[in-house]
Write a structure and sequence with these properties.
Strand 8 (126-127) and strand 9 (130-131) form a beta hairpin. The mean pLDDT is 95. Helix content is 34%, strand content 31%. The protein is of the alpha+beta class and 195 residues long.
Length: 195
């Protein structure tokens, strides 16, 4: 089996983003976006997804929204590329992750047919140093670019920080399990013979 690694560089007038991922890593992360809470979420995503993840993202126009969006797009594209044909993977998985009073659930099908449904249930206008709409847009952009079918739901909770953190961790665990190589699986895990 070829190493499941990928690097994606995204350079625009708005941002410069470089992402490297190793799906068969140990959860080692080096994340630099300049946005503390975003870095924290991406570190959790790599750690609990057990993927080595390096993100170096810089703003060229000083607009935080563009940096958050482009970082999510590039992470999603790098993981999609690392998954390649998706031959031999488990394909389906789900995870339910609590964080104190909050509970989030992620269900994932790594088919190459993008669909996402997201419910974060954020109430505050800002969590740490990131606006509510930018956090929602981060998740939306990440899910869109993973090229998979994903349902991610915060079931309940009171603390918005806990809700968002439970959401990223449940997504990470579901992705880790769905992307695991299955010794019983021969080739593409689909009755169609392709994803």
């Amino acid at each position: 089996m070829a190493p499941r690694k990928a690097s994606i560089k995204r350079n625009t007038k708005e941002t410069s983003v470089l992402v490297s991922v190793n799906l068969d890593g140990t959860g080692k992360t080096v994340i630099k976006t300049g946005i503390n809470f975003l870095d924290h979420l991406i570190v959790s995503f790599g750690k609990h997804g057990m993927m080595d993840l390096k993100v170096d993202a810089k703003s060229n126009d000083g607009i935080e929204h563009h940096l958050i969006e482009d970082t999510a797009i590039t992470i999603g594209q790098a993981i999609d590329k690392a998954l390649s044909s998706r031959s031999g993977i488990t394909r389906f998985s789900y995870a339910s992750v609590p964080m104190d009073e909050s509970l989030a659930e992620a269900s994932i099908d790594l088919v190459k047919r993008p669909f996402w449904k997201l419910t974060l249930s954020i109430k505050r206008n800002k969590i740490e140093d990131v606006s509510k709409e930018d956090l929602e847009h981060f998740f939306q952009s990440l899910l869109q670019n993973l090229n998979s079918c994903i349902h991610l739901t915060v079931k309940y909770g009171d603390n918005d920080h806990h809700k968002v953190e439970a959401a990223i961790k449940s997504l990470a665990v579901a992705l880790r399990n769905a992307s695991l190589l299955d010794k019983k699986q021969k080739g593409i895990p689909s009755t169609k013979g392709s994803m």
